[in-house]
Amino acid sequence: MEISLQKNNLITMLLILVCPDLLFSGFEANALPYDYTASIECLETPLKPLHGGGIILNPELNMGLKGWQAFGDAKIEQRELAGNKFVAVHARNHPTDSISQKLYLQQETLYSFSAWIQVSEGNEAVAAVFKTGTGFKHGGAVVAESKCWSMLKGGFTSDATGPAELYFESKNTSIEIWVDSISLQPFTTEEWASHQDQSIKKVRKAKVRIQAIDKQGNPLSNATITIQQNKPGFPIGCAINKNILKNTPYQKWFTSRFTVTTFEDEMKWYSTEVSPGHEDYTSADALLSFAKQHNIAVRGHNVLWDDPKCQPGWLYSLSPAELSSAVHKRIVSVMSRYRGQLIAWDVVNENLHFSFFESKLGDQATPNFYRLAHAVDWSVPLFLNEYNTIEDSRDWAATPAKYLQKLRQIQGLTRNAKMGIGLESHFGTPNLAYMRASLDTLGATGLPIWLTELDVLSGPNQAKYLEQILMEAYSHPKVDGIVIWAAWKPQGCYRMCLTDNNFNNLATGNVVDNLLRQWQSRAVSGLTDTRGFFEATLFHGDHEINITHPSSSAHSFVVVSTNASLQSPLTFQVSV
Question: Residue span of the signal peptide, if any (predicted)?
Fold first, then answer.
């Protein structure tokens, strides 16, 4: 955690931020822990099953085929390579022909699933499916390769108590599916919440130790210290549009809550260049000026959108050469105009579901876009922005594995670019176990992860689901920021509003406000001990600290900190 100070002081202060990893390792020791680890490397030998396999019988296939049987028309057999035993599925005639194990699930229980998969040739998507009495639960999918093992990590929530059957699925019936190190670990909702609480204390907070001393370096006992948080360290924001520019109630509501924003439409190509060669950034400029005035960070959204329905109308008639020239001009124009004024760029939107530019400019279109984008603005992360990667385990087009596949293609041409993972997060009913597992997998890249357009489909449980998703995202150690997709319009928001037209909170707005309060350090006050020390546990962010002592007048200063977790205790001293 980097620390900087504002204002000099007559009282010297020693501040020690203790490593969070050491502070909370024993928190809620009775709760079954969750394993946030995931592997995105294809390994020669699979790793041990998470949670010891959980409720899976014979998870490492060391007891032959005990607990496992053929599913459909497949044939199965135990094999061994380099001392590692696994099950091989062959003679497959249908996508669902595989192995299976019968299980018994509990209602309202979250199940974390993982397995290591290999295919006999090429690379193919392989999914895990759970057949239950109420339907099919899709546990997740991975792009498996031949000659090495890939980790599939996913999960689901059981909505009924009763028997179930796990099996695997691949559309290519000509391949063999090899499976090893399978795990299915159940968690109660209370245990799941305890993981969130523990993670928040570990990655979003730090213990602060302050020592007040006089000019001669002597400790000052009974000094009064008060601490007030001025700004949170974790960025949570909401989208805005040009309606905010002349609406004072909207401005007051928005600026009193959020530290980051995205423009809903005003920076998109179809808004800035309605006719070819006639660029108009008036609305985007005005919104950026408003954000700067209120010290609100801005994400650039978006440079290009791969959906064929979301292009400037004049683009469709261009030849490939003309389109290439127009795209080059668009990237240079918008990114050079706002270079140095934004914290990130969504360079290509929804590239896993759509391929407007690839269909006209070739398979390397997207990597080429990022290479040019990096050349124009190398100062901030360049995001790939996509939906259903954490929302829906049934969407094979946008699984974490597919996302990583596209990311590697881009990185192959732009090795020095700062990349980021943008997850739109347009939810229906959330699958929290799958969401967490997907974040685990994507987090293994070490790249910044943002939920960029979070909303929930309208319905009686909209506010409840929003709270669950926000809590899961904020508590996840690999998530770096959240933007809620609820820009206000008189005729209604995209899918979810936070207020009515008078800017009184709806139930969703109350959820956001309650969590923002919950994730902010409360005002702390106390006296230093006989050695001049005072301790407090604070959320990451900017804090104002006031010190008073009978021997001196009152003094205050601001401690500005980043979100980076500490690897060792950090000490600094404020002196005159």
Answer: 1-25
